[in-house]
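Memo subject: From amino acid sequence to discrete backbone structure tokens
Action wanted: Derive the backbone structure tokens from the amino acid sequence.
How to read it: Take the token row as a discrete description of the fold.
Attached in line: The record itself begins immediately under this heading.
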Amino acid sequence: MGLSEYNRKRNFAITSEPSGDAPVRARKGAALGFVIQKHAATRLHYDFRLELDGVLLSWSVPKGPSLDPKVKRLAMHVEDHPLAYADFEGIIPKGQYGGGTVLLWDQGTWEPFGDARAGYAAGNLKFRLDGAKLHGAFALIKLRGRGPARRPGDDERSWLLVKERDTEAREGDAAEITERQPESVTTGRTIEEIAGDRSRIWHSKTAHVDPSGAPGARAARLPAKLAPPAFRKSAKPPRGDGWLHELEVEGQRLVGVVADGKPRLLSAKGAPLSPAGARKLAAIADALRLLPADTVAVDGIVAPLSADGARLGYFLFDLPYLDRHDLRAVPLERRKALLADLVHRAPAGGPLRYLDHFAADGETFHREACRLGATAMVSRRADSPYGARARWQRTACAK
């Protein structure tokens, strides 16, 4: 099947899963790996994956494997997955394909009995597993038009996962290994514990924005303190070219930071919020983890998304730091381009918003902003840095 179907189902401008552009071929003579991931998506199931020819052949097994040879478990063949999937345990954000919680239930190596490719093509793949939980001989057998009527195409997708009779076979309660050993094979956590840990959300490097080529970008650690530039008040809008204008969003200005998987919200002066303030905006902080970045700092305004104020949005207008690069000396216009790309790669439907700008005549934009009911417009030089030398101003509309 290859990775074409995997790629077809995913929009990599939105999803943070690994792309299948360049499958990694298995090393010659190296043991083939297998992984079983417990996946709490729309319905709980187990993803059974066998490495072959640089991809993970994949089946969705609703009830998981059994050690009883008399028990035949339905296994629906799904698209091949990249090898990068084999190590993931955590959360795929809701709204993305396969969104839900993933637990690494078992992993190890597998050895086919005979020619694996021929057995797979014939729909009769027999093999031995050597994992942390599963051992011994198993078989994957394709169903060919037997049983009750199924949806079109299911005849090609429907297989059975069966335990072969050997010393590892069990009966009765002893065969229900998913019930007896529900925990993660790597961390020992339950699916509920993983769901409650927002520090492990799937973001692959293919979804990241590369800031290294931006003029003025400097490889550096995240600054210990970020001082957001202030907007000085101006009675008149700026004149001339080279300005970027935005409609003012009325709300609370905050700097959002994610480092080591932990989000923080800082005040307009760069100070941590009070515990009560942080609790009130926990959902905003949590949403920052959905940005496809290892380490990031953004500047923006928290404001209501709904008339009743029940839903809050975080309107982002600047990007001083991204993935080991200090961007404070990068011209504003380029920082905003990087920010737009970053926000658009995050899952849709969340509280994060990109605040767009207009490169228009200041007086014309101010007149139109006030006509639309804005309280003010903010203006920044397109070549402005992020810091004390920034030329940022706010021009209010007449009341």
In short: Confidence is low (pLDDT under 50) at residues 9-17, 21-29, 146-154. The first helix runs from residue 4 to 8. The chain has two domains: 4-203, 208-396. The radius of gyration is 26 Å.
